[in-house]
Amino acid sequence: MAFKIQLNLARDVNETQLTDINSAESVAYCGLVCAACIHSPAGCRHCRNGGGDPDCYQRQCCRESKIDGCWQCDQFPCNHGYFSDPAWKGLCIGFCLAICEIGIEDFARSVSSRFGGAVDYGRFRFKTGAQIKTILESIE
């Protein structure tokens, strides 16, 4: 299943720049909305700003492939990185599928309106893509 959404997001944002929670730049390569994460206020600079795991498979692959996120990849969903980790697989795939369905800007706004700037992504670990889709559909 291949979806293509072109955004041309900045690959590396000045690390002092704050990311608007409602913007496409707040969405990580794996589909998580970094700016909405509970760890964001604690100093996490988000993966597009140089934060997060420097060895993140999704970040490295998307940069090498010159795509804005996994949702644009012909191999999506692959079985690497977060997509191979049972704890995060459903969440990341569910978020990427939502981006494919409603677009990245609407997705970022939806997560922001539903969860604000305090999403504890740990609550959604070990859920399936279908469970994540149901949670996202409950967003106003």
Structural class: mainly alpha
* Main sheet summary: none
- Head-to-tail CA distance between termini: 27 Å
Mean residue pLDDT: 78
Instruction: Summarize the helix and strand pattern as letters.
Output: HHHH
Low-confidence stretches: 1-19
Q: How many domains?
A: 1
Shape: globular
Helix content: 25-40%
Our Rg estimate from Cα atoms comes to 14 Å
Into which percentage range does the β-strand content fall?
A: under 5%
Strand segment count: 0
Determine the number of helices (DSSP H or I, runs of at least 4 residues). 4
Task: Work out the oligomeric state of the chains in this entry.
Answer: single chain
Describe what you observe in this structure.
- This protein has helices at residues 57-65, 89-102, 104-115, 129-137.
- It is mainly α.
- The protein has one domain (24-137).
- Helix 2 crosses helix 3 (104-115) and helix 2 (89-102) crosses helix 4 (129-137).
- The two termini are 27 Å apart.
- Residues 1-19 have low confidence and may be disordered.
Summarize the structure.
Helices cover 31% and strands 0% of the residues. It is an all-alpha fold and 140 residues long. It is globular and about 30 Å long.
Fold blueprint:
Layout: H1 57-65, H2 89-102, H3 104-115, H4 129-137
Helix pairs in contact: 2-3, 2-4
